[in-house]
Amino acid sequence: MFVRIAVFDPLPVYRHGVMAVLREAGLGTEAPDDVFAWMDDDHLRLVVLSLQAGDDWERLGRLCRTHAGVLVVALLPDDAVTTHVRALAYGAVAALPRDAQPSAVRAAVEAVIGGRTVLPIDVLRSLIAPGVLTPQEAVAPSPRELEWLRHLSTGATVADVADRAGYSERMMFRLLRDLYQRMRTRNRTEALLLARERGWL
Fold first, then answer.
1. What φ, ψ does residue 75 adopt, rounded to 5°?
2. Residue 187 — φ and ψ, nearest 5°?
3. Under a CB-based contact definition with an 8 Å cutoff, are residues 91 and 72 in contact?
4. Is the terminal CB of the chain with fewer CB neighbours within 10 Å at N or C?
């Protein structure tokens, strides 16, 4: 099976390093400036995608939504179980920390090409645990809650939002915490990223 492989990372040195590792394994790679323009649905595509900033997570979600057959190996900013689970929930088929050894990157890509994935045991256990929440299960905020998120996205503090909404700061923290839970996110940053990705903001 022929698979075209792209490596997408903002740092040229890192990107070319990953490409060299894969070339040593006999895998041809490309480094497109625009991964969406590089995609097509006529050929199997595999993307090695670094996730560092919010835009990277949005790119992952959009890529997997618009190209259902794409295989994404996510290079994560850390090795936390929750970060692995989030990448898989957004559509990646494999994930490993960005500072992984070259042999681990090669093994992950080769496994995916072979129709398998390699996951840390803790990540697997987390995925099969009862009550694992994914972005697809997120509840859309109400219009009032969207207004709070809009204010937060402009850099407003919780105190600012509370003042505008007519609540105490303590009550606002409680309301926002409940909102983040319903959105299946852990904090303000994740909630804003998800809201932008879903087109709610």
1. -100, 110
2. -160, 180
3. yes
4. N
Yes or no: domain 135-197 corresponds to CATH 1.10.10.10: yes
Cα–Cα distance, 62 to 165 (Å, whole number): 33
* The CATH number of the domain covering residues in 4-128: 3.40.50.2300
At 108 the pLDDT is: 95
- Does the predicted TM-score (pTM) go above 0.70? no
Cα–Cα dist 112/94, whole Å: 7
How are beta strands 71-76 and 4-8 bridged, if at all?
A: unpaired
Contact assessment for residue 94 and residue 113, using Cβ atoms and an 8 Å cutoff: no
| Cβ-contact 46, 30 below 8 angstroms | no
What would the pLDDT profile of 118-150 be if each residue is shown by its tens digit?
889 998 888 777 655 454 566 778 888 899 999
pLDDT of residue 55: 82
Look at 186 and 48; give whichever has higher pLDDT. 48
